[in-house]
Amino acid sequence: MTDSTLSAATRRQLLTLAAVGGAGVLSAPAASAEDRHGHGHHGPHGCRTRVTVLGTTDLHGNVYNWNYFANTAYSDSKGNQIGVAKAATLIKAVREERGADRCITLDAGDTIQGTPLAYYYAKIDPITKGAKHPMAVAMNAIGYDAAALGNHEYNYGLDTLRAFERQCRHPLLSANSVDWNTGRPVFRPYVMKRIKVRGQKPVTVGILGLVTPGVAIWDAANVEGKVKFPGIVEQAKVMVPRMKREGADVVVVSCHSGPVPGSSYGDALPFPENASTQLAQEVPDIDAILVGHAHLEVAQQLVKNTVTGRDVLLSEPLYWGMRVSVMDLDLELVRGRWRVTGSQASLLNANTVPEDARIAALVRPAHEKVLTYVNSVIGASTAAMSAATSRYEDTAAMDFINLVQGQAVKDALVGTPQADLPVLSIAAPFNKDAAIPAGDVTVRDVAGLYIFDNTLLGITMTGAEVKAYLEWSARYFKTVPNAGPFTPDQVTNAVTDTAPNGTPDYNYDIMGGLDAPLTYAIDIAQDPGSRIVGLAYDGAPVADGDQFVIAINNYRQSGGGNFPGVKTAPVVYNRQVEIRQLLIDWVTAKGQIDPPSFFSQDWELTANGESVVIQG
Description:
Purple Acid Phosphatase, chain A, domain 2; 5'-nucleotidase C-terminal domain-containing protein; metal-binding; 2 domains; TAT_signal; 5'-nucleotidase,  domain 2; 28% strand
């Protein structure tokens, strides 16, 4: 059954079933029939009405509930489903409930990057040459009122972003994307939307867009000398009073910046990466904030403004279209001005509804093109590479990942103080089924080597820190009395104090050198913490004070796996580029993978100095 066949009663039931993060129903009751048709009504203090803000964020090029790399429907362990086509069904249902003319639909950024569907229309059949972006097609059909820019909007350069902007029927907002020389916003900072109230003056809703300032670091190559990114709070303090002077009764911010204070880039910028809570606290006259960037599920968060003492409503609808935020703002006409007297929010779950048939149909031709591309040949391999044994022996498959990661970081460091430091890279054998065949190689073959959506960073570490890192990684192995033979399960996935169910494969890291080999043995007859033997770089023992750049993924750098030294290590590269896409781009550009040219036996498992034998 498609959404077009849903009755009003069914839609109301859908809203109840789909609500998450609260008591199982929408936090605020549906507007009355009178309100849905544009009437205000009178309470004890004056005329009242309600405005509903619907929000998505971090769609990342997902239209369908589809995993292009697995060539099957998307699924995860939590039962989530994805795609703006499903979000559209929820949005339409709320509009039916609240009244479409009482609803404002917003997005909080990161729209045009993240899937092969998005990549294809940036690089393969680019929108700069006339192709229609499927996200613009879908969002236009849904009828968004505005969208904030996210940091990933800048990944493909300003020309692609401007082409996307031209294709959207809604404005792309970013008050703190400003001209490098003049400091003036280079995108529309805000927009006013008027909600009619029969018999009364309309409600004027000001919608402000803000992006995390981290763009200045992550996409420096695309914005240096062109666009600067002042702080979220700082720019809002300029823009919100301006919006109020222009008649905004209500101020809603679409903010591509997480709710939990902090920055992945430390003190590299004077402005924090995740500032939505700070924004609510410090800038008066904001009523609600649609939050993005952090990929968190926040149904409702009330933050007290320190100037006015009033609560500001925050909501973040997870990512990829998994949720839709529903923010209800109740208003009262006081001395001729509408003001918010109460606000509540909840989330709707995309896994409770079918895709909107119209949206799905509109994007289907683009989807079919991309399916062909993903299954297309992008190069050839002179030899097969398998990750099947990567957990316990050095393999070309892991060396390939480390080669691509290390080279990307090294290239980015040209001209920086770290340019001459040796580059190391880490990779985890988290997909035993990954294999690159000899002969033709497809996009999907390469993507199978990297099944997670991790992005690449570069950090600096000392020789002592490198050794401590490898010692922690070696906790993955069980302690054995001799060199075997053993089965793989007899030596891997050890139980530890931090992994009571066994250390997962993705928390075992293999480290390799880019321009020279990093060599070591892991003696698993020894106790954890005393296993790394003969650690050397380019044949020379690694000294405690040696300096290295490490190519590392964002999961590990942010503390995943509790590896020592990484969270506090200086970050020297972070453009938020997906590692999986780097691998695909490398093969596409080179045309050939030649494992003998980069594979070398640099590490091994030993027991009391003897090579461990693993069979089966």
